[in-house]
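Researcher: Please predict.
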Amino acid sequence: MEKYDASQIQILEGLKAVRKVPGMYIGSTDERGLHHLVYEVVDNSIDESVAGFCNNVSIIFQRDGWVCIEDDGRGIPVDIHPEYNRPGLEIVLTELHSGAKFNKKVYKITGGLHGVGVHVVNALSETLVAMVKKGPRLFYEIFSKGVPDGGLVEIASTELSMQPPPVAGITAKLSSESGLIIRFKPDAEIFAQIGFNYKTILSRMRELAFLNPQVSITLEDENTQTKDTLHFDGGIVEFVKYLAEGDNYVHKDPLHLKEENDDAIVEFALQYTTATSETLQSYVNNINTIDGGTHVSGFRAGISRAVTDYAKNKDMIKGIESLSGEDSREGLVAVLHVKIKEPQFEGQTKAKLGNAEVRGIVQSSTEKFLKEFFSAYTNIADSIVKRVIQSAMAREASRKAKDLVRRKSALDGIGLPGKLADCSTNDPQKSEIFIVEGPSAGGTAKLARNRETQAILPLRGKILNVEKANDLKTLSNEEIRNLITILGTNVKENINVSKLRYHKVIIMTDADVDGAHIRTLLLTFFYRYVKDIILNGNVFFAQPPLFRIQKGEKVEYVYSEAEKERMVSIMGDNSVVQRFKGLGEMNPQQLWETAMDPQTRKLVQVTIVDAAEADRLFPILMGEKVEPRRKFIEDNAATVTNIDL
């Protein structure tokens, strides 16, 4: 150990701190962090749009990892700052906590309050070019890993192709008098891989287009010749219809409010459906507050108060003890968007709003609007309240089932289901459970496993589709109750992830259509009842091979038809190909080597990349309505469907 004195203390100047600890600014250096770079630039364009100066945004994925983002806003100032004697463009891109979003004179409403967004993109890019259009004048500056490289340059638009390669590669899509183009290439020294997921970015851009009907967003991938233009005149009303596509409606059209006052702009749209879960997407200044906050608390309280008061006044509460807030939101599909001048988020990731005063503002607006609407449209109000009362009746009827689930936990004296082959260790961090289909696969897996750390749970056929069932039916199902008991976490609002008995919950099904269906049914249960274990990173897919290829003593396992063809061409025509119809056909050693041995297996971690899209897709794929599911299949039948949740 070196001597610890004042000489050991470092001051990281400029953007060096960002490159030293990038995770502190963008959350991680994996795919999510990489995508965050795009979001930071686009969020600035959306701030321009909210301020009334930008109508179009273009995002282009170019070859070799380059991204080109353009808007037709005012463009970053290029004149010399009177105090710092440097162009405004250079200051904005190199100085942390600089920008025009602090004094509220230029931007009254903004999501970027920490002053680090676009600086972070610059710091974590191998090369970044910022180009500003000011009428007939064109300015650009090049940066290398956050450091200015050559200073601000003014050129004519006809001279673009004659500039250095990073500038010559700019693709201007918008014909506007003013605007900003940011072209950057993420630094491979920072990020594990440089490759953008088009679907993930598209989903976020779709959200922004729904939330900002005044703007049109174009997303294009030059590598795959894919292009989408997103513009929704109906705003969040269209957003709710999009989210509720797979559900049956209680009332035809979403209810919508947009109310402005000196302290906030409160906007929401909501629609009641026959679904057994709540879908609520919340935003503050276009930022998705995935962990909710005071605005969500106020919204829910306003709904509960309005629904309960109407039911009491109409003497509709009969045969039940009371209506709970959860009852008033079952089947609700809603989007809440609040705009405030000084949002207080929890951390740079902005996942939760903390402004105490916002709760009262949102609750008052929501309650007042719903009470007035219910008074004017009693037929719709009656339908909604009847739906809520049905939820309350089902809740009270299922209370005994929930209590039984709580009592019959892995920690009490009742014990675990007999068909579970548990592992010997009591350390959850070392424990993993394989959920397999049927006794045949279960028997092979039990022989193949490491008994100390690996537990096996064979399922009895296909489990219940919980998307079509209420709590009472779900929690009365033996297979579901066994799963809940074995996991040990309890469910929904009572879930406690710290009590999870296995830190790896691995779904291991056959590599065929039936196996995929069982996997989807399990995912539906996990998402609706124990979502927190997905968010906590505890759920995985095993990937058993589809083929075994042998020539002489050489053996290779492959996972698709394409891989098989490639491997056979490498090994030669005399190679022997064995196709596994199911896990039960594999001998224990083969199953261990390919799917269960931590040293050689391939696991896919289940994550929720986009909660809004997940909430939309589960009802479409697993819900009651046939038409949306048929349309989804028809739209995707010609391609290999890869749904990222």
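Model: The chain has four domains: 16-230, 236-400, 408-544+591-607, 547-579.
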